[in-house]
Amino acid sequence: xxxxxxxxxxxxxxxxxxxxxxxxxxxxxxxxxxxxxxxxxxxxxxxxxxxxxxxxxxxxxxxxxxxxxxxxxxxxxxxxxxxxxxxxxxxxxxxxxxxxxxxxxxxxxxxxxxxxxxxxxxxxxxxxxxxxxxxxxxxxxxxxxxxxxxxxxxxxxxxxxxxxxxxxxxxxxxxxxxxxxxxxxxxxxxxxxxxxxxxxxxxxxxxxxxxxxxxxxxxxxxxxxxxxxxxxxxxxxxxxxxxxxxxxxxxxxxxxxxxxxxxxxxxxxxxxxxxxxxxxxxxxxxxxxxxxxxxxxxxxxxxxxxxxxxxxxxxxxxxxxxxxxxxxxxxxxxxxxxxxxxxxxxxxxxxxxxxxxxxxxxxxxxxxxxxxxxxxxxxxxxxxxxxxxxxxxxxxxxxxxxxxxxxxxxxxxxxxxxxxxxxxxxxxxxxxxxxxxxxxxxxxxxxxxxxxxxxxxxxxxxxxxxxxxxxxxxxxxxxxxxxxxxxxxxxxxxxxxxxxxxxxxxxxxxxxxxxxxxxxxxxxxxxxxxxxxxxxxxxxxxxxxxxxxxxxxxxxxxxxxxxxxxxxxxxxxxxxxxxxxxxxxxxxxxxxxxxxxxxxxxxxxxxxxxxxxxxxxxxxxxxxxxxxxxxxxxxxxxxxxxxxxxxxxxxxxxxxxxxxxxxxxxxxxxxxxxxxxxxxxxxxxxxxxxxxxxxxxxxxxxxxxxxxxxxxx
Length: 713
Description:
With about 725 residues, the chain is α/β, with parallel strands linked by helices. It is about 40% helix and about 15% strand.
């Protein structure tokens, strides 16, 4: 297949340290198996002939404590695959739990990147809760299907922490767990497909969520790189790491019990040390090798890893394991395959004693290297052992039994050889990246087909906003609608532009009313709606709301106090409840009885109430937050999507269009305009058309040569 016609997939992994080389796996809780997964997925996807481009979006970091690599805005992984680093909150490296206030900024930066690429992705694939939140925002804005991989889940984590005796308020303080869970609920509500590693993950973990939708969930186990993880060659030469282990071990050639994970309490390395230290026969038969990230000075590590290493060293001392256990200070990602192969050549065992293991990539790496496994009976290891038949499952909290199982596994040579052989075969059959991508694309094709069917088209319809180079924005009542023949002519003109001209409406109507009236007039769904006099922005057929705009205009907004202050003013009464919105208070006004507009604003200011007041048609008064108006919403939207404001044609007929018409936009006032717009007649860049309704818009487009070179006459 010609790659020029291939798929464009955007992967979203906000947190952790991501680069294409020298992975710092185990450096902290955020830089572990998930990082490796997304990198290998990106490389495996771009290797497929159907995929043209893969962008892996992550956070850009400027911090003297980490490599300058993480500040590079773009890093090529392979031809067509890139790591794209986006600014998000403070420049320094932050753990994922404190990134939540900045996640919406990451979504905005992602939009700018997509605008720069000038192509809408075919699929968004988010990872973890924070990436999922960003993915849900982008999927709504771009009208693109969202695929999500959770990696681990907040509700499950909260239950397990409570079971360990940690108080809910402590969990909330340390992990911001409620925000994470809410993000996961949002993701599940928006995702077209959720990828799980095991059936147990779907049935036992996702099922406890309110938005659990099993029909959207598929099991696609992660793959591993079989060019890196493979059995030792017959003429095996001991790697350099053997020399490092010799520093710790009296007899370095004994079978190796290998543990490799982040220094995280949930990985439960302590139980393994207790099982080894408490079993004399096991200590005599084997060495224990613990690879748990890199450390220079334990005192300078983060609290969690510091606590893990402190406890491990105390246990090693308590059981007097010096000479029987190795725990190198530094872990290089390129050394990991050598650890597995060295352990396998020693006829050792790989152990994963984690309290919970959603999947277990290290188990697959060990199996591919010919190293049998002993693993927790929770989660992914069940499926791995069922498919590979290369080890045994254990209760990670039964320390005595863990020691006995390890001793039995090392003592039965026939069983060990069978596990060794079956593991190698099982990984190749069930867990290669080629098989993963093949299944991935089968499921993605179903999602794309469903999306097309729902939209009633043969090819996907996506938002045009990332690719347009100019924009027409019209008020609805008495501007866009009012003359059916003119409206039909305008819609025909816009449809003939081959998608490089966007179309939006800006109205005083609430969103439901705006959509209804456009449907009645048979107007195609616009790219966006600015509604309720600029207090709301929605996108596309699904009316996806722009929450960034809501947050922006919420500044100094006190609706209850405003209503109370306006209650006794003469000639002013509230419009019906259905016309009130979260950021808009609407009144009927009798000009002969009511105070003047300036007097109303002065009255509110004296009460420390700050509003933007919109008076229109000499009958309506809308009070909005000071940052809200149709004009402000239009400029926010143009900036967000990278559309030059001097390439935006704006058409209106009344006072609530004034701010939108002013400035560097290409203003058009239709012939049937209200008297309050006459004061704009001599303004530059505002054209007063003779034609009424959409005829006036068409005249304005011709006046500015809008569909061609654009000129100001």
